[in-house]
């Protein structure tokens, strides 16, 4: 938190925001209560209060997400682990921590933007089996590639990549040096989740998501097997992950066998996790923090870096770095 009005505001994508919320742990004394979940779950028949369907871990995860959507300053009072992305040795540029954007209109912030990266060719990597050897050889490839980029920048100007004849020349040099097909040199992968940051949410979209969540809650006890478990052993709803256990941990619930009960639990679990929890997060995001806008300083503390594409216009960031 800061009173300093000089602190710039920055935007992040939904994918990055989700990453951040998994790194955050709210203080123990932080009290949660969510009337929205109560409301959407039909006045609490299955809701957050008594009786409960989410496990403690799920509730904490959900409400941490909500708390941060409602008050981005919470990032500053919480315990968090900095985001640290590891190099997979798959691309010319090692993977980097996620970005924040100073320009709300940055193309990289928007839903239809695919982030791509040039691959280290498979035929090259296949030659090396040991992990250390592979890393050394990938780095050798990277260094040569970058040196060649610099050479081409000097010789043909920094926009040399725009011309096919230059690309062919470049590919031929790499192909010769490492004995790989020149068609492999500029092969790219789409990396990372689809972006979906700044977006104008319409009211009817919010209504639709709420309806969907309510339907999810309803479906939890409409099925006959689920209803039976609900009536006889409510706590199993909270611990639906037990459906994946191999050993027998509870008796049959007539007329359902142990295997049936586990199957029903797995169904409950997938509805809670994949549908209700994700939709609730989505709802919190678009209701409380639709722009995903935060203090630049806070985002830096969390391990984010400025996007090279828009930071250069705002007078910071490394404009010279082209995304290879
Ligand atoms: Zn940007």
Outline the structure in words.
The chain has helices spanning 14-22, 35-40, 56-70, 74-77, 122-125, 131-156, 164-178, 203-222, 224-232, 235-238, 258-288, 296-301, 308-311, and strands spanning 9-11, 24-25, 79-80, 99-100, 116-118, 188-190, 293-295, 305-306. The chain is mostly helical and 324 residues long. It folds into two domains: 24-80 and 201-289, no CATH class; 111-196, no CATH class. The strands form four sheets. A two-stranded antiparallel ribbon has the order 1-7. A two-stranded antiparallel sheet has the order 2-3. The longest helix is centred in the last third of the chain and has 31 residues, at 258-288. Zinc ion is lined by residues 101, 103, 106, 108-109, 307, 309-310.
